[in-house]
Amino acid sequence: MANDLIIDNVRAMQPGKGVVAESLRIRNGKIVALGVSAVARSDAEQSIDGNGCLLTPGLIDLHTHGIQQFAYEADPQQIIDGAKVLGRYGTTCVLPTLYNVMNRNRLDKLAELSAAISQIEGVSVPGFHLEGPFLALPGAGAHTIPGDLALLEDIIAATGGRIAAMSISPDTPNIIPVIERLCSDGIVPFITHTQAGPEQTRAAIDAGARHATHFYDVFALPEETDSGVRPVGAVEAILADPRCTVDFICDGVHVHPTAIRAAVAAKGYQGVILITDSNVGAGLPEGVYQTPAGYPVKVSPDDAARIHDPAHPYNECLAGSALTMDRGINNLLKWLDIPAEQVWAMGTSNPARLLGLTDKGVIREGADADLVLWEQTDGRLQAVQTWVGGECVYQT
After folding, report:
1. What is the value of pTM for the model shown?
2. What class, spelled out in words, does domain 59-355 have in CATH?
3. N vs C: which end of the chain shows fewer Cβ within 10 Å?
């Protein structure tokens, strides 16, 4: 790590505000000055000319199962190796997401995966996102276990406290004590995989579950019981509650851009977050790739990731995405008619705020130097250099 670094001749974007500086100084992994003067610049150990490119905080992915050939749930080494490639997609902070190791028969595996976090380089990892096991609908094979405080304590112990978020369903039996326990430990409950009605959803929100992940996806409508009367469920309850935020898989397959626009209209830009829910194959050419769940997925940048096994009960169903964070932010910049600095907040300051990461997702003095320099190529922004804690982890 360069102890003292100047990044000069850039358009430094503060999410939600706009361009705030043309140069900045990094020291010991932190941003220590914006708009550095020519005199102060001369004593820096290293200086980089940004050639007028856009500089933003690094992207933060709250929900991702894998990247390229690496599946985070497969084994500890795949988490370590997968983390090293994220910088090329502008991702500097990530919650590796697990969904099939949170039961009493697999807690040893969960403990092994958790131990790998301390060995990760190239990206910041505040903890895991556990997608389950207390879910009402299985989706692509997630556990559907009733709320169980004893099991929850075992899961927390197996991870060594390395849980940043856990997905739950409001319609899972005995879920309210689970939500309350998560909140008491600083673990953010995410609502998902649900067919809950508004009353169940409101109870979960009141208990502390105030974020919905891969919104609209696996949010089934309650059954229509009165012909011609559209039932109201978790989606409407979450959109109507100002305490709640939502995230979307912004690949144009899982959710139509109109649904994202509707959420922005209901929540404002600060209430909407970009995720990938990426699976094995994300960032790779179209093809069929094996997953640790025991089934292959067919991956295409234009058609997400789908189970590719005729014997599987969910064959051809969606199983995560082929999205990377850089593609997601480019899609939002194209789809949303709001200022660019507000779009950037959806991948940076908004997820940081949800997790309580006060020094990430922003460009200001004292913030972590998790930064990405972007270049416009063929109408899309691509990362040309990425820093995590002031250390360059990717460069074209």
Report:
1. 0.95
2. alpha beta
3. C
